[in-house]
Amino acid sequence: MTHPYASLPARAFWRSGVAGRTARGLEDVWRPKFAIGPATPIATFGSCFAQHIGAALRARAFNWLQTEPPPRALSPDHAKAHGYDLFTCRTGNIYSAKMLRQWTDWAFGRDKPADEFWESGGCWFDPFRPTLEPSGFASCEEARVLRDFTRRAFARAVEGAEIFVFTLGLTEGWRHRSDGYEYQICPGTREGAFDAQTHVFHNADYGEILADLGEAMATMRHANPGLKFLLTVSPVALAATASGNHVLVAAMESKSILRAVAGKVARANENVDYFPSYELVSSAALSGDRFAPDRRNASVEGVAEVMDVFFASLGPAPAPAREPERTPQAAADARCDEELLEAFAPRA
Known about the structure:
Elements: H1 14-17, E1 42-46, H2 49-59, H3 76-81, H4 97-107, E2 118-120, E3 123-125, H5 140-160, E4 163-168, E5 172-176, E6 199-203, H6 206-223, E7 228-233, H7 247-268, E8 272-274, H8 277-282, H9 300-313
Helix pairs in contact: 4-5, 4-6, 6-7
């Protein structure tokens, strides 16, 4: 008598598929839905872990799109300090599906960008990317013009890409109470002033995230019918939570919801795939430790393992233009604005 399990491959069983293996030692862990080659135009956006994907694509001479490149006069370090070379354009970290929907609606005229800017000491900051200019913009008008420049650069990224990579990072966020738009980080933690009458905490649930992600994708597909999406979930835990739960519990709930949404969307759409970066870093079952000493960020080696699995799954490819950076400094290359919240933690 036969049954469905009798003909399953080794990858379907824990003992043969996982036990005793490292992340690099996993076989057939990801089967890409669509071809991705060195010439494929790829845009990358999302939370801070998406920065590692863009850097790895660039290091291996893949066609990583840059629709808002840095001025030639800026050194690489200064370019990153001003938000260049992190994502395909200078959106900064897009942590949530709600924020992705905002940028998409702004880029394609479905909604007008919120006319809100923060002044501090004669300098101006954009609430949707407040760390973009470390010293702020010289005027409110400059901040408005440069946000509009990035809005158009985001539209070009969508129109010019064949693959749109998006890393889901957070369910928690802070919104404008009456107008509903979401900030990148809580007002007052970096710039701006917190006002409990204006700013409200929101922890998005599964249905909300599914709807926001679906709407954003539909708008992008309308602009570029051939666009395909590759979703990932960041393994980087929350730096802090306003949910009332312990941060460990809040982080697990958040990542579980995001992972469930990503899986649902990928299963339901032929043009959407999911790459398991979250599992490759976070699974305690895999041999080795892929977290940095803070137990929150992925280690340099962990990131390297994830990207090695990614490129190995794509099949034979040209040798990288240069070896990806694997020194301790590489762990700090991902700019994570949410880490600012750690400054407010009580001293032990």
